[in-house]
Amino acid sequence: MLFAIVALLFIVLVVGWWPNRRRRELIDKIPGPYHYPILGAVPYFILQPGKAWKEFRNYAKSRNYPMYKVVLFGAPYIHFLLPEDIEMVLSSRKHINKTNVYEYIKLWVGQGIFSSAGEKWHTRRKMASPGLFPKMLQSFVEIFGKHSEDLVERLEEECEKSSTEIQPLVSKCALYGVCESITGTKLDNDNDIDGYFDATHRFDTLLMHQLSRPWYMFFPIFALTPTYRELKRLARTLHNFTWAIIKKKKKEVEGFEKLNEYEFEANSERRFGLLDILLLAKNSDHVIDDEGIREEVDTFLFAGYDTTSAMMTFTLLLLASYGDIQQNVFNELQDVFGDSDRQPEYQDLQNLSYLDKVIRESLRLYPSVPAISRRITEEITTRSGYVIPKDTNINIRIFDIHHDPKLYPDPYKFDPERFSIDNCKNRHPFAYLPFSAGPRSCMGRKFAMLMGKCILSSILRKYQVEALQPLETVRLMNHALLTTKEPIRLKFVRR
Ligand code: HEM
């Protein structure tokens, strides 16, 4: 028996410990809070649920470290805080692999652009890019305008109420905008949009539940939980919604292989989006199959609508809290639209330069995606002087970078002028990352800004928004998506 134990220890030492000693030495040099034997930083999540990340952040901030480590069950996660170090990872074509943090999102989006890597990611990204070319974006403005108009009408009855929970309303509007433009399909009663909407929100909530419990990173443990079973059920609901749209579209695209022929035939009756491009690619080169198309449609819906609705919700909250800035936005809207009720056109939205700065500053204060991560594929020596071994997880805490007083003096102040051309000139390009940066940055950045400006301008032309609580009392939840502990409520007043 004793011999067996000694032999086992020897094997563990030889296979696990000895070859990794350099890796461990390098990780040991990186600063971090106290780590417990074997469990590393896991006890912080057990002893202080919901507070662990804040604790780690304060630890690094108070000591002015450029990075800090959090080791969970032996796997180190290094949190980069310096734009120069972040640039090394995000701008590289080598370090494009995501970490296992993204694993459960795959239940929804499969191996689509968001979650895949290597050649597959590259081919898919190239194939999907034309779906967001400027010509396509221009054609989407009509869709955004139509749904903004519906939302503005819906808000009419909210003026009679003392307060309105805003996120579900802008979220539904964004879902219609993203879904109809990406799939080139007008949604009707056959599409269970309410069921889809509820399923996406429940899915996000369960993902947050999983992400805040590091022990659920082990699939064998997580697979036994009711949360996992519910995630799988929700994924089926989400997929059924997408399959119904794809099936209908397939009939329209049948017999076509070339984009120009199809576009010519398409005429004004038919809408044209990324889904059409993918189905044409399937018909012509068979480079993607039905499952792949489903993955990409789900990817764009997943990546596009909740992020944009968070951006709009926080922008409205900020404008409600800063009356003078809301007045500046309204003055610009008057200059562009006057008193007319017409829907925005593409050029109008391009002319809203002040609103543009407002949204950028809102994304700085409240980045919809507060953190991202990468698994680096080869050793790097950072500009701050640390050596990070191959196969290490790097976390980029966008929220913390956006609130660093060295990069943004008085960082909690809402000041859109930070995004004037002059004030941007000397800022490090990797100090502002709401859409990430480099080869794996957000594909929908221009889409999001365009849709956001369309919906927000439509609301603000008609209504004044008023805050019901001091901004400092809004409690944030810093998970996969930035949200608030309590729903944001605002008062809408007719202009
Ligand atoms: C305010 C709105 C948005 C924000 C803040 C945002 C932010 C981001 C961020 C930070 C990433 C990088 C994620 C990572 O590396 O883990 C990303 C990726 C992505 N986003 Fe967005 N996004 C927004 C809207 C959109 C929209 C509207 C679409 C599409 C219609 C979209 C499509 C994508 C896709 C496809 C990726 C994956 C890119 C890749 O991995 O190559 N996003 N987004």
UniProtKB/TrEMBL annotation:
One of its GO terms (molecular function) is oxidoreductase activity, acting on paired donors, with incorporation or reduction of molecular oxygen. Belongs to the cytochrome P450 family. May be involved in the metabolism of insect hormones and in the breakdown of synthetic insecticides. It comes from Pyrocoelia pectoralis. Residues 1-16 form the signal peptide. This is Cytochrome P450. It comes from the Eukaryota. Keywords: Heme, Iron, Metal-binding, Monooxygenase, Oxidoreductase, Signal. Its cofactor is heme. Pfam families: p450. PANTHER family: CYTOCHROME P450 4P1-RELATED, CYTOCHROME P450 FAMILY 4. Heme binds at residue 442. PROSITE patterns: CYTOCHROME_P450.
